[in-house]
Amino acid sequence: MQIITDPPKNKWPELLARPLLNSDALEDSVKKILEEVRQEGDRAVRSLTKRFDGADIPIFRVTPDEFDQADARLSSDTKKAIATAIENITRFHKAQMPAKIRIETTPGVQCWQKSVPVHSVGLYVPGGSAPLFSTVLMLGIPARLAGCERIIVCTPPGKDAAIHPAILYSAKAIGITEVYKVGGVQAIAAMAYGTETIPAVNKIFGPGNQYVTIAKQIVSRQGVAIDLPAGPSEVLVVADETAIPSFVASDLLAQAEHGPDSQVILITTHPEIVEPILSELKTQLAALPRRNIAEKSLSGSKVFIVRDNQTMMDMVNEYAPEHLIIAARNAETLAELVVNAGSVFIGNYSPESAGDYASGTNHTLPTYGYAKVFGGVSIDSFMKKITFQELSEFGLRNLGPAVMNMAAVEELEGHRNAVKIRFDYLSKKQS
Amino acid sequence: MQIITDPPKNKWPELLARPLLNSDALEDSVKKILEEVRQEGDRAVRSLTKRFDGADIPIFRVTPDEFDQADARLSSDTKKAIATAIENITRFHKAQMPAKIRIETTPGVQCWQKSVPVHSVGLYVPGGSAPLFSTVLMLGIPARLAGCERIIVCTPPGKDAAIHPAILYSAKAIGITEVYKVGGVQAIAAMAYGTETIPAVNKIFGPGNQYVTIAKQIVSRQGVAIDLPAGPSEVLVVADETAIPSFVASDLLAQAEHGPDSQVILITTHPEIVEPILSELKTQLAALPRRNIAEKSLSGSKVFIVRDNQTMMDMVNEYAPEHLIIAARNAETLAELVVNAGSVFIGNYSPESAGDYASGTNHTLPTYGYAKVFGGVSIDSFMKKITFQELSEFGLRNLGPAVMNMAAVEELEGHRNAVKIRFDYLSKKQS
What residues of B are in contact with residue A137 (Cβ under 8 Å)? Predict the structure, then answer.
C-alpha cells in the first residue's frame, strides 16, 4: 500500500480517482450476445449456456425436485444462519415501507402520494467460484416486502448443470420459486427482452462481472430499468489510535479478496498505527485462500495520513465510498459528518461482513463515487411513487385563478382553457 | 383521432406503442458540443450561445440588478399566482420529507437509514417561446426543502440577452440566486463538466428539447446523475358517461399543444360520449393559438372504446401514462386500480393544468412508459439514503456465527476472518 502524508486538498480528486473503466472494447461482443437472444430466444440462450458455462440445459427453470435436493444438501448450521439473515434483513427493510402521504394543500385540493410495487423484477445472482446466495436475500427480501408480483432469479449453472444449494434454499426460504439456470449476458438479455420460457421484467437487479454490468447498462437504455450503475467494490476505513490493527487489516483484506480491481483505502489521523496495520496485513494475507487476488488489489491501494478528524471526514465525503468503516473514538459522532457513502460501519465491532450478510442493511450499494447521488438498494428500489390529486368544485374555484394566470404567462392557452372552461361552467351553474 | 373499439388484449402493446425515438442522428452533433465545452469552458459556451441563441453574453450569471428589474416588470397578479403555487408545492413536498429509520434488528445490532441531500444540483429551465417558470418552482422547491447546498439554474437567454422576468422572479422567490444565462446542450455540458464560471453539479434536472435530452443521457453515462429518462409528454383520459365533453376536450388539447409529438389518448366505456368530445375538440382547437402544434399531435392520437371499467384500467396500466385523468363515476375508486402512472387527476374538476402549476404535486414526471418503474420528481430525487450499523460487543458475538457460516459457504475467507478475529479477541478478553 502506498502511504501518503498530508495530501493537499487540491490533490484529493487525483489521489482518490477511481481507475478508468473502459468498456468500449467489450461493448460490441456484449451487444452481439444481447441481439442473438433477442432474436432467437431460448435457442440462443441454450447454445450460449453451452458455450460459456459448459452446461447443456434442456429446461432452464429449476424444478421442485431440485429445490428439495438443495434443502437436503444444505447443513443445518447454514440454514440457521440464513434464517438469522432473513429475520434481520426483513426487519430493517420492513421498517422502510413508505407511508401514504395525503394532505389538503389548500381548501378543496387534496394531494396524495402512494408507493406502488414495480410489477416484475429480475434478480441476477452470480454463481461460479463463489455462489453469492446472500444476494438472493438482499434483493429478494425487499422485492417480496414491496409486493412485486413477479420475482424471478437468473443464476449461471455449473458444468454439471446444477445451482449451488445455498442459492436455491435461500430463494425458496423467502418465497421465490421462479429460478432459471441462466447466467451472464444471456441472462440479462432474457430478462430484458423475454424468451419463450423466461419472462421479460420491468427492472433488473444484481451484481455481475464486467460483461453482465455492460449488458445491464445497454438494456437500461432500451426501456428496462436497472438497480445501480456498477463499478468495482470499495472500502474506506478511517482509523485513529483506538483502532485495533488486526481488525483494520482484516477489513482491508475482506474487501481486497473480492477482485483484483477492488478499491481499498485507509485514512488515519495517527501515523503510529500504520505500521502495525501493515504488518498484520502481511500476516493475515499469507493465510488467505484468495491471496493472489487480494495482493493485486492491495498493490493499487493507498494509506492517507491526515492531521485531524475533520480532514479525514472531508476526504471520506470527497471519495464517497461504497463501504465506510469508522474505527475511531466517537465513531457515531464522526458518522454524523458522513454525507457521501453507501453504508457505514461504526466502531471496532462492526465489520463490513456483518452488513454483507446479516445485520439487516442491504449490501447492494453505490460504487465508483455514485454514493454522491444514489443510495443503495432499499424498499424504494422495488417501488415507485405515484401522485394523485382531486379538486372539489370549491378547490377548482379556489386554485383556478392562479393556474390560469401562470398558464397565460407561459403562453400555454390550452392549459389555461382547461381551467377556464370548468371555471365558467361552475360560475354559470351557481348563478 | 383514430377510434378503435374493443381492441383485443394481445393487440394492446402494438396499439399503445410510443413512437420510436431515434436519437442516433443527433448524437454526434450533441457529443461535439459537449466536448467543445469540456475542453474550452466559458469560451465555447459564449460562442455557442451566440450561434444558437443569437445573444452575446459577456457574463453568464444573472446580476442582482437583473433580478430587481424582473421584480419590477412582473404583474402583481402573477406574483400572487406564484405565491400560491409556492405555498402548495412546498406543503406537498414538505410532507414527503423522509424520516430517519432506526431499529435494533437483533440484540446488539443497531441499523439506521438517513436521507442526506445531494450536495449540488443544476436545474435546466427551457426558455424560448414559452418561458417555463413553473419548472423553476417544481425543481427548485424540493431542492431547497431537501437542503441541497448548491442549487444553480441554467436557462437560455433571448436574442436581447435577457431572461423572462417570471423565471427570475420565481427563482428569487424560492431563494435561488445562482442563475446562468445559458441554454441548450452547452448548459448541460457546463453543469456536467464545469467551466471557469459555471460549477459542475452532482445531478441535473429539467426538461428540454431533443438535443438537451440527448445531452443529459450522454453525461449521465459519465458520472453525473439526471432526473428521469425523457420522452414526449403524454395524457391519457378515461371517461364514462358522467364526463363533461368540453372538459375532456380541453384536457386533450392542453396536452396536444405541448408539441407535435405529444401523446394523447382517450379511453371510454361509453361510446356515446366520443362524438360530443370530438365535436368540442374541433371547436376549441379553432380558438387555440398553438393549434398547428395541437393538430399535428392529435392526428396521431387514439380513442379506445372498451367494455368495462376493469378493461379501461388494465389498459391504463399497460400504457403507464405520464398524466392520467379519470373523469368517471367513482373516480377515486378507479384510481385505486392505478399501478402505472406518473400523476393522476381525479374527477371532473381536476384538470392536468392544476398539477402542472399549483395544486402541489410535481409536474416532472416519467414519460414513455417509464412510469412502470419510476415515479416523478419528489423530495427523494434530491436526496440519497445512507445506511449505518453499529454492533456492540454483544451484537458481534450474537450475529458473528451466522456471518461466519455464510461467508464460509460463499468461500470468502477474508469476510469470515474479519468477524472471526473480533470474535476470538472478545472470547480471550472475557476469559
Answer: none
Same fold, B23-98+117-228 and B231-375: yes
Residue B24 has pLDDT above 90, yes or no: no
Q: What is the pLDDT of residue B1?
A: 87
Q: Test B359 with A410 for CB contact under 8 angstroms.
A: no
Q: Which residues make beta-bridge pairs with A275?
A: none
- CA B140/CA B136 separation, integer angstroms: 5
Q: Taking 80 as the threshold, does the pLDDT of residue A431 lie above it?
A: no
B109, B223, B349 member nearest A391 (Cβ): B349
| A368: closest CA of chain B, how far (Å) | 9
| B256 contact residues in A (CB cutoff 8 A) | 414
Q: Which amino acid type is present at position B206? A: G
Give the residue extent of every domain in chain A.
Answer: 23-98+117-228, 231-375, 392-430
User: Per the structure block, which three cell numbers stand in for A291?
Assistant: 491471496
pLDDT above 80: residue B431: no
What is the SS3 assignment for A268?
strand
CA distance B355 to B138: 10
The answer, yes or no, to whether residue B117 has pLDDT greater than 90, is yes
Please write the tens of the pLDDT for every residue from A142-190: 999 999 999 999 999 999 999 999 999 999 999 999 999 999 999 999 9
Would you tell me which residues 243-272 of chain B have a C-beta closer than 8 angstroms to some C-beta of chain A?
A: 244, 246-247, 250-251, 253-258
Q: Which three cell numbers stand for residue A46?
A: 441454450
**Whether the complex's predicted ipTM surpasses the cut of 0.90:** yes
B280 is catalytic: no
Residue range B364-417, pLDDT digits in tens: 999 999 999 999 999 999 999 999 999 999 999 999 999 999 999 999 999 999
Q: For chain B, what is the mean pLDDT?
A: 96
pLDDT tens digits for range B272-307: 999 999 999 999 999 999 999 999 999 989 999 999
Residue B161, Ramachandran bin (φ over 0: left; ψ between -120 and 50: alpha; else beta): left
Give A238's contacts (C-beta < 8 A, 6+ positions apart): A266, A267, A268, A312, A313, A316, A324, A325, A326, A327, A328, A334
pLDDT confidence bin for A430, thresholds 50/70/90: confident
Cα separation, B168 vs B177, in Å, equals 8
Percent of chain B at pLDDT > 90 equals 92
- CATH assignment of B23-98+117-228? 3.40.50.1980
CATH number attached to the domain at B231-375: 3.40.50.1980
H or E element: which one contains B378?
Answer: none
Count CB-CB contacts under 10 A for residue A408: 16
B297 contacts chain A (CB < 8 A): no
Which has the minimum average pLDDT: B176-190, B214-228, B333-347? B214-228
| Chain B residues inside the 8 Å CB shell of A372 | 118-119, 202, 384
Catalytic residue among B93, B164, B258, B323: B323
For residue A342, what is its C-alpha cell? Answer: 453507501
Q: Do B418 and A80 count as a contact with CB atoms less than 8 A apart?
A: no
Residue B396 contacts A, CB cutoff 8 Å: yes
Give Cα separations from B253 to A385, A408, B64, B269, B428 (angstroms): 27, 15, 39, 21, 77
Q: In A, which residues are within 8 Å of B373 by CB distance?
A: 118, 202-203, 225, 384
Nearest to A362 by CA among A89, A123, A166, A171: A89
